[in-house]
Amino acid sequence: MSLITEIYKKIKFCKQADRIGPDIPFTHWRLHYKSSMTSLCKKKFHFFGKNADFRAGAYAVTCSQISIGENVVVRPGTMLFADEYEKIIIEDNVMMGAGVHFYVNNHKFDRTDIPIIEQGYYPSKQIRVKEGAWIGANSIILPGVTIGQNSVVGAGSIVTKNVPDFSVAVGSPAKIIKRISSSEEEH
């Protein structure tokens, strides 16, 4: 196959792919400019809210199954892996550091008679991050998890279970270490 043919196929793939990221170079450049980023994201994502930002260096797979709320910034190194079966929903005013990973499915590994790579996947499960949550840099959010309203996930945490509203979760696996209360509740 000639280089010209490869380039043509890559351009065609980039325009049709239900994904955004550095591996999609013929659309990825658009993330460097606010107006073209917004236009691309509104076209690709299921929902892309007002004042949302998807930064160059971030990845999204199966964009049509991903909703990004208002005032959400998806920073470089972040990876959003949805699939055709389940969604990732990030509600309004969610903060997240760089390098956060979201996965709606996971590899099967139950059998010893065949390599893991050939075992397929467990059923996909939706991920939801509720309004006002804060997810620290380099955290990993696994299938089926809901991060509660105004909750905090500490940097580098691996979240395997739901985090209730107004809670702080840290660690690997993440555990609830604190409940967030208003100053009125403390008195």
Broad CATH class: Mainly Beta
What is the CA-based Rg, rounded?
18 Å
Order of helices and strands: HEHHEEEEEEEEEEEEEEEEEH
What CATH calls the topology is UDP N-Acetylglucosamine Acyltransferase, domain 1
Integer average pLDDT: 94
Shape from CA axes?
A: globular
Question: What is the CATH architecture assignment?
Answer: 3 Solenoid
Give the total of domains: 1
Q: What is the compact description of this entry?
A:
The protein is an alpha/beta fold.
What do these coordinates show?
The chain has 187 residues and is of the alpha/beta class. The protein has one domain (3-186): Hexapeptide repeat proteins (UDP N-Acetylglucosamine Acyltransferase, domain 1). Helix content is 18%, strand content 26%. It has four helices and 18 strands. It has helices spanning 3-16, 25-28, 34-44, 183-186, and strands at residues 19-20, 47-48, 53-54, 59-61, 66-68, 73-74, 79-81, 88-90, 95-96, 101-103, 127-129, 134-135, 140-141, 146-147, 152-153, 158-159, 167-171, 174-179. The strands form four sheets. A six-stranded mixed sheet has the order 1-4-7-10-13-16, with no helix packed on it. The mean pLDDT is 94.
